[in-house]
Structure formats: structure tokens, C-alpha cells
Amino acid sequence: MRFSADRPLNVQPATVRDYRELARRRLPRQLFDYADGGAYEEGTLKANESDLSRVLLRQRVMKDVSTRDQEIELLGEKLSMPVILGPVGLAGMFARRAEVQAARAAEAAGVPFTESTVSICSIEEVTEATSVPPWFQLYVMRDRAYAEKLMDRAEAAGSPVLMLTIDLAVVGARHRDTRNAMVGDPSAWAKIRRATDLVSHPRWIKDVAIGGKPLTFGNLAEVVPGARTPEDFKDWVDAQFDPSVTWDDIAWVREHWKGKLVVKGVLDPEDARRAVDAGVDGIVVSNHGGRQLDAVPSTAAALPHVAEAVGGQTTVLADGGIRNGLDVVKIMALGAQAVIIGRAWAWSVAAAGERGVGRMLDTLRSDIDVALALTGSNSVSDLDSSSLA
Predict the structure, then answer these.
(1) Is residue 2 part of a domain?
(2) Are 91 and 193 in contact (CB under 8 A)?
(3) Are the beta carbons of 341 and 83 closer than 8 angstroms?
(4) Which residues are catalytically annotated?
(5) Does the pTM of the predicted model rise above 0.70?
(6) Which is higher by pLDDT, 244 or 109?
(7) How far is Cα 32 from Cα 386, in angstroms, rounded to an integer?
(8) CATH at residue 327
(9) Which three-class secondary structure state does DSSP give residue 115?
């Protein structure tokens, strides 16, 4: 299927990869690579997809699957299907007020949207645009007073779940960003190359650079008022992310957050047990989409061991490499109660805005329904290791 970067969407992409291709054509290279890329040689990024593709479902026949149910209850909420739109930093650079568009699509689909600390749209803007409050993702910052203020803002917005990202003590080397001069001190030539990249995408300039203003970090406007690029994000990360954080700091979060608390970035069974001991309500098995430490296990490889280690003592979620509804079913069969998607919705919103995210979620729902029927399952709650070949 061929897409034009400059014409309105007049065909319906069939898969998440179709949305990725359309996003690649529509976004400036530096922004597409920022969303698409991983750390170092991107081995873990690739493994997230390839390892999951090698997980096989057990096809069953001659079972009554005339009724099939995707609804679940998760962390006190009812979801129409086991999918959560995860936090994506700088998403508002991919489409006009993208976080609002994605949150609206999530609400229409009956699934949660997670607001990133480094979203372009503030949590207040997203909340005002929807009737269902978003989840809120938080980094542990050196400026604890501001982190506490962000938790207060999330509570005031009605956020039911705080997702604490714990795998960013330091930032992994993302070579695509270096090649695109998105990090470091760009030379004069690099600045010219970046500017040329931007001006060669007039549709993006009209829709986002002009129509999507203000392009600042909505949740951080008081502390990083001029930030508008991944380079600004990197500067803020270097100044604020705290490598001294330990499990003892969960108690500090609990002092300031009374809702559900989920920690994101667990790959090791021992860390999963420590999270349970710290009293969290859930963990996200995640390698940060392959964007942190390369040469670590894929989600599909790590998930069964982590799920076994916690033994039903806490909610287990997972992200990484999920590109269709069959992947959702596989991840649940490997031990998760639901999945979190990031790139899938980022590509979709870049390709076709709210409509694109809605269509992508509809496709996932359809895929899950087919997989349930052909694995002889009546509900996503029935999925476990026996659903795998």
C-alpha cells in the first residue's frame, strides 16, 4: 500500500506498520527517528518484535466460541479491552495537540490514556478535553518539590493511576538522535540540516509547528518554559533524573499519592519481588521500548519469569513490540493482565490524528476477537500459558 505524505488520508491503513510508514513520510526525519528509534544498535528494540513474533498461539477447534468477551477490570477500572495507551514524551510534536487527540480516541474506545510528564499538552488540557481522567506518568526528579506538585496536579485532575517510570536513572545512547543532531551541541551545518529537514515537510509545519502551538512541555512550563525539542528534553533529563533513587523512595511517593501506583521498567524477577514488597499496586514489564539499555531481554522473554516471581501478588502489565491484537493475546498468555502500547499510537496519531488512533484501536480489537475465537477462548480472562503452542 502506498501513501502520500502531502494528501489527506483517503485510504484506511490495515496495520500498525502501515501507520508507521505514513508517519515516516509525514514527520520530519529527526522527529520520526526520535519516536521510532532505540538505544545503541537497537538489538533489544528489534528483539521486542522478533521474539514476540516467535511466540505461537495454540489453535483450538470445535469449541463453542459464539460469545467472546474482551472486557476486563484493572486497577479499579473497567476496560473494554486489555489495552492502555502508554506515556509518549513529546507526542504533541507528532500531530497538533496529539495528546488530546489520542486521549479522545482512547475514551471513545473505552481504554485508558496515560499522560506523560513530558507531554506537550498539560494534564489539565487533556482533562478538559475528555470526560475520563487520564492516568499520569511520573519520573523521579531531583526536584522533589516539583514532583510532588505534579502529583497534586494529577490528583486534582482525577487521575486514578500514577505510573512511576523507574528505568531512567540515566538515559541510554540513542544513536539516531545523535546522527540527527538532536542531542549534543550541534554544529552550524547540523543546524542547517535540521532546519532543511523541517522545511521540507510543509504539512507538518502547518499542522504542528504553526497550528499546534504552544510547543512547550505543558506539565513542566514553570521549570522548562522554553523547551520545544528532544534536545531540550535531554537537557532537562540530565539535570533532573535522579540516579540515587532506590526502592525506599516508593514510600515518599506513597506519602503524596493516594491512588493506584504502578511502577514501569521492571525486567528482573528480583526487582519484581522488591516492587511487591514496596507495596505497589502493579508493575509494567518493560525495557522502555528498547530505548534504554540495549542487549537486555525482550519483553516476551522476560515476562513469564517476572509473572512467575510475583505469583499474582500484584497486577502485571507489559509493553514492547506490540503491533497487533495477536500480540496482545500473546502477551496476556505470557502472564500480563493487559498491555501498554506506545509507538503504535504515536505512529497512528502522526499519520491520521484522533481518527488514526481510533482506527488502530478498532483493528486491535478485531484482531483480539479473531484470536479468541480461533484459540477456543470465550474471554481474554481465559488466556494463560495453555493458550500457547
Answers:
(1) no
(2) no
(3) yes
(4) 288
(5) yes
(6) 109
(7) 39
(8) 3.20.20.70
(9) strand
